[in-house]
Amino acid sequence: MTVNPFNSPRRRARIAHAGRFIIALVVAVTLAWLSTRNPPSFDVTRAQSHTLSEASLAVLEAFTGPVAITAFLPPNDLRREQLKPLIERYRRHRPDIRFDIVDPATEPDRVRSEEIRDGEIIVQREARQERTTAYSERGITEALSRLARAEDKWIVFISGHGERSSRRNANHDVSDWASVLERRGFNVQEINLAEFRTVPDNANVVVLASPQVDFQPIETNAIVEYIEAGGSLLWLTDPDHPTTLGALEQVIGFKPIPGTIVDPVSLAQGVDNPAFILLNQYAKHPALSGFNYTTIMFYAVGVHIRAPDGWVAERLIFSGDKAWSETDPLDGNVGYDDGADFLGPIPVAVAMSRDLPQHQQRLVVVGDGDFLANAYLQNSGNQDLGVRLVEWLSHDDGMISIPSRVAEDDILELKDWHKAVIGFGFLIVLPFAFVLNGLLIWWRRRRA
Length: 448
Prior knowledge:
By secondary structure, the protein is α/β, with parallel strands linked by helices. It is built from twelve helices and 18 strands.
């Protein structure tokens, strides 16, 4: 019997192997070609640090026109390759962003006249521009955020009465919050009314950050005149507040509830200090649209609403039904005393507004200043709440929904032993495993 050599099992196996190899090669070449046209990318970092954050996307949506981003870097600067993929993330969502890298040596006149430093990034929209030297999403987004603001806005902090300072860095001060406001494009100024005797005309929002000592009559009158003229005010008050601000309380139309708020629900969640309360009940208000974080306050006081004629008052934040305002010292066992303590729900923050011929006047009173202090600002939603209140008071309603935090981690940090394991694994272990696998397959086929 004659055996056809072209129809032998070995021959058919070789043809099948060759067919599979050709198919795999065609698929690989096709995928490689497609990858050059639409490069796939996957972000596996915990905080999605290689994908634009919610804050960055919201800032991009706030723009209505083209934006130009120009970096001034020498040709051999490694930051060129660092910046290109970063800007490309923005261009995926806004193709009208124009990006250029300029060698400072090629434009000496511009560098000199505009005082441009090497490594500086200029973000420009129409005639306005912002500068940054931060090669990160946070740096670029904050520059865009400042640029998105239609005009300069001034936030004026009153000082001279033991207030939380926007400049000092103590735990009870609010300098970290002030820095966040500046990065978003606000101008922050701190003034002493005993010296100025009046609130500056360019003040968009005045902040009373928990004053501790009495005001002079001329100082109280200056704030009252500012309010009567249509100014916006953010008042952070505490259980122990100066009695000389009673005149201002009457003008605004609120009265602090005696005592300190205590919430048994917060204590049941593991909070060991009755002065701490966790708040997550918010009103449907433009300043809090989409806000769903928990706010943590410390030694908070309730606020009675007594809005004057012409004003509209709303509760922004309020405690739970089981909370109460404790009028006794918070030491030892605390408990609700019927007839002496005020039972919840207790308003903790109120917003007030009235329509004037030129604009809508806005005021906010919060029965706590600690939630914006440096020691507590980063807790849960405290920072976002503080920024939202200022955005609403300054009439920048379009910026309210932009989160104040851009990204949690911008850098992948590897220790030396991490690098050693990765290098040893990819350069030695994997190649050796592939070679060993190939030899094993070859040996098994030889024996077959």
